[in-house]
Amino acid sequence: MTYFIDRRPNAKHKSAVNRQRFLERYRKHIKRSVEDAVNRRSITDMERGEKISIPTKDISEPVFQHGPGGARNIVSPGNKEFVQGDRIRRPGGQGGGNGAGEGGASNQGEGNDEFAFTLTREEFLEFVFDGLELPHLQRKPLKSLEEVKMVRAGLSRDGVPARISITRSMREAYARRIAMRAPIKRALKEAIEALEEEERKDSVLRNPARITELKADIERLQKRIEAVPFIDTYDLRYHQLSAQPQPSSQAVMFCVMDVSGSMTQNHKDIAKRFFLLLYMFLEKHYEKVELVFVRHHTAAREVSEEEFFYSRETGGTIVSSALKLVNTIIKARYPPEKWNLYVAQASDGDNWDDDSNTCREMLVKQLMPQLQYYAYVEITPHDHQSLWHEYESVAGHFPERFAMRQIVEASDIYSVFRELFKRRLSQTN
């Protein structure tokens, strides 16, 4: 009989297995609550857990029970109390029902509360980013020897128990036993034949001393055979591992944010929340992704994470300055043949007079041939301006790798983020 023992550590009085089963069963309700939580949260508390409530009627389970039994005469549809034309008296009381079993108020003081529980930080983020991924992520040629895979490279006599080769060790032990027992068995066979020959002689010719000696030899040889160990440390063989270089799926994400004067504080807050979601998503799901933060107005600068989210610098608007800086950084530090390159841009769409044409030319001729994916979000409740229309032309050239969405208010952030980074079924890594 086989026994499976779950040794995962559980918190006191809690079962990790049952909790995961519960989360999976009510995934639809939890995801709805998580989406509402993301939309109403501020930037500073995006990563904490969340208290979730599920109506009791949604967690009820069907059960088998005994029916009334016996012989019954039923006429359906219809009833025994009313006929056509009867007037039904209005129910008494102030409420529209007794509330029992519905979670509502009752004049009898009875009802059911909603079932509430708290998602941990990890569980909350798991639901937030469920079904998302970096589009078109590819395996790139090796950049350095940092990323390796340990593969089996023959056998050795030294190693740790976890890497022992059972089959090879038993084969070695079997060969050793054969080799060690073979001469002893030959001597044993000769001694037995000599004893049998001596015992077949007549009592006059039989040598009792010789018989005693042969019996002692047989007993000694049998003990030597039994003393040969079934397995010895000499027999043990271990799988030897060697580091084999692997293609790297390393990627870099350029976060480009417009901080010009036309971006109101509300626009900037929405952009920061979008990029914070992106930052958390990459941090949780990818180990080999680097982040480059770029802020721009009339000029663009590469900044630190803290300055990207909290600096108050502002000015006019020249979007092409950010694209030129991104292209310069790619040439200097991130060659496309070794890196997966991504850009996420947030702006209100306002731009200098003829700069939108420059942006289109740069994207089509320089940036997009190098990038895996470009995501542009325009934060504005108004009609689109020239930058959006020029970007539409870029999307026409690269329909699979250039995506653009509009955000009107904070409640749109999460849905737009999921649209931009949803898992593509046809994607191959």
From TrEMBL:
InterPro entries the record matches: UPF0229 (IPR006698), vWFA_dom_sf (IPR036465)
Region (Disordered): 83-112
Biased composition annotated in UniProt, kind: Gly residues: 92-106
Family designation: Belongs to the UPF0229 family.
Name this polypeptide is given: UPF0229 protein B0H98_108149
Species this protein is from: Vreelandella songnenensis
